[in-house]
């Protein structure tokens, strides 16, 4: 095989199958520099479009995650305020049948409302605590229900 020259066209081998030399396969798959003088305008525009769509999706996902972090912080603040207000009543150890409401001093646009109603046949009151927080233009509310002893 040492003196065999490369053929420009495929050659026939056993069983009349067409076989290509490795250099012919390479030339057909990967065009040489001579055949690729530059990119077509359509290819450039299509590449820019694909990159732009990808960037838009990445930026949109960042914006969505920032909004999710803000909402979760709001939920965490509300739960903290509910727990704080409920501990005030639980420290007393008992509650009378009543309704009370107010606002939090350290958090603007946040209000609470507590209602206690007597449970029949038990020395307990069902206590419902509602907290509403205003975030931007939305109002969000959270409710906690527990039982405390009657004040008698």
* H/I helix tally: 2
Mean pLDDT: 77
Looking across the biggest beta sheet, what order are the strands in? 3-7-6-5-4
Return the string of H and E elements.
EEHHEEEEE
Main β sheet profile: 5 strands, mixed
What percentage of residues falls in helices of 4 or more residues?
25-40%
User: Beta-strand level of the residues, as a percent range?
Assistant: 25-35%
Shape: rod-shaped
> Radius of gyration, rounded?
38 Å
Q: What is the SS-derived class?
A: alpha+beta
Give the distance, in angstroms, between the N- and C-terminal Cα atoms.
Answer: 111 Å
Q: Can you count the beta strands?
A: 7
Low-confidence stretches: none
Question: Topology of this protein?
Answer:
Elements: E1 11-12, E2 18-19, H1 22-29, H2 41-92, E3 94-95, E4 99-103, E5 110-118, E6 124-135, E7 138-150
Parallel strand pairs: 3-7
Antiparallel strand pairs: 1-2, 4-5, 5-6, 6-7
